[in-house]
Amino acid sequence: MKKWAGLFSIFAAGFWATSIFALEVIEPAGAAHGYPALCSINGKKVADGEFRQWVENKRLHVVITYHFPDGERYEEQAQFRQQPELIQEKWSWKESKGGKSQREFAADFLSGIASAHVREEHKDVSEKINVEPGRTFAGFGFTIAVSNLRKRLLGGEQVQLKAVGFSPFPTLSPQVVTVTISHAGLDRIRMSDRSVKGDRFIVHPEIFFLAKLFVEVPDTNIWLTNPAPAGFLRREGPVLLPTDPLIRVDLLSGETSKSAEPVKTKSE
Known about the structure:
The chain is mostly beta strands.
């Protein structure tokens, strides 16, 4: 019955949520290179990361890799157009161990084809998805989208976009669901022996209420640096599928990472 979690979505989360049809690029992304940490949700570092981002042939390219002590490796790749508006064109996720692929997921937003491969379960899926250019994102694409929506979200607006995901049961069928993005407040985060401030944004899947009876689809939380310009600071959510373990990715790598705490205002 858990397959229902990936089969239903709704378009309206309330009259205050705005559906957008073109995402204006407020802060164009350029070349960047960093070394984030992948942690368990309780803050223990489990993998060393490397983040690379560059512009080539008028496209923004992003490659993020994570290396685990046991030889396991995750790699996410994404490609975007930033002019005249933000449009994600490609996304992929690959998990391997000992050089052998374990799980692979991909979405070509230009052709509208999404695919999944899980070696252990002998599952291979490739299906057509309904992509709305400029509104449909996957993976790190939401961090870039939120950074360009930051000003609107800080003003109290809620914005709806579409997310590409995969239903864990029974066939890993790709799905496009509506998500509502909102600002959840200013937090203080301690990572790598530093305490930094970040705005927390919630990416909430709008799942049909009956589906919630069979599987929980977690929100994804994204923190961006405060004050502006907006840059990635932290992400918390499932590895990929709704049934995957929850993880934390920190901008600054350290042996431990602590939960975010709300920043108290003077009125408090």
